[in-house]
Structures are given as C-alpha cells and as structure tokens.
C-alpha cells in the first residue's frame, strides 16, 4: 500500500507481522559506533544513529571538515538526503542539548518539564520521571528536594 508524505512523495508500507514472526533478528541491527571504521581520523565528527554532528571552529574549517566527512561517506557508498540536513549552524539542538559556541546546555523545555512534572500516579510515571530527572540532574538546582 502507499501513503502520501508531507512532501507529496509516496511511502510504501505493508503488514509484515507474519514475515517478522518467521525471520531471525540481526544480532546488531544498528551499526555500532565501534564498527564505523570509515570515520576513523575524523575527530571532529560525532555519530548517533541517524545524526552526524560536525563541530568546527570557523566556517572555513567547517567547510573543510564537511568535505572530508562527505568524501569518507562516499567511499562506502553511503548516500544522504541533502534536503534533511542543515549546515553551518551557530546553534543546534542535539540529543536533548542545545549546543552554542562549544557549550552544552540542556533544552529549556526539558528542565521545565522536570520542574513542572505532575505527581506520579503509577510505577510507569515514576520511571519516566526518574529517567528525565537523571538526564537533567546536573542542571537542576536542589535536585534532591524534587
């Protein structure tokens, strides 16, 4: 079956539950960072699942780093969708943090979510709250009081 995406292209989808029951899962379905040998030597590149973060001191260096990273990806026939990428940002949100001028700050909405979190009604709510709290604890004043 086909469904229309927001960009007017189509996405193919189907019910693969019967196939999934019979298939043998991969041992490591997601490429592990230690397996990514093709990016060795590019210390300015950080990877996390689908995201590649290129940290540079200036625009010239950023362009040089970007060229090197894209060349490495091209050597393994790795293709990217340029329309989904952004380049030369002064500020970026990445993995729950706001990165500005080589400083990491938590996202304000994340810290606010901990401060304004409603009373936990059940064990799942409590686990969710503890997870959020552990993630943002170093940025919260008097975290023990919470």
UniProtKB/TrEMBL annotation:
InterPro entries xref list: DNA/RNA_pol_sf (IPR043502), Retrovirus_Pol_polyprotein (IPR050951), Rev_trsase/Diguanyl_cyclase (IPR043128)
Protein name: Transposon Ty3-I Gag-Pol polyprotein
Gene3D superfamilies the record matches: 3.30.70.270
Bilayer-spanning residue ranges: none
A biological process term (GO) from this entry: DNA biosynthetic process
């Amino acid at each position: 079956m086909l469904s229309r995406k927001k960009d007017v292209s189509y996405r193919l989808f189907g019910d693969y539950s019967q196939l999934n029951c019979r298939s043998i899962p991969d041992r490591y379905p997601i490429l592990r960072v230690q397996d990514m040998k093709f990016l060795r030597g590019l210390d300015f590149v950080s990877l996390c699942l689908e995201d590649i973060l290129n940290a540079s001191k200036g625009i010239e260096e950023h362009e040089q780093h970007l060229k090197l990273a894209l060349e490495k990806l091209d050597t393994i026939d790795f293709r990217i969708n340029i329309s989904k990428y952004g380049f030369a940002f002064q500020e970026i949100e990445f993995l729950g943090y706001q990165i500005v001028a080589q400083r990491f700050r938590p996202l304000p909405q994340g810290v606010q979510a901990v401060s304004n979190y409603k009373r936990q009604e059940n064990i799942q709510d409590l686990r969710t709250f503890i997870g959020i709290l552990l993630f943002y604890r170093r940025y919260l004043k008097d975290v023990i009081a919470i």
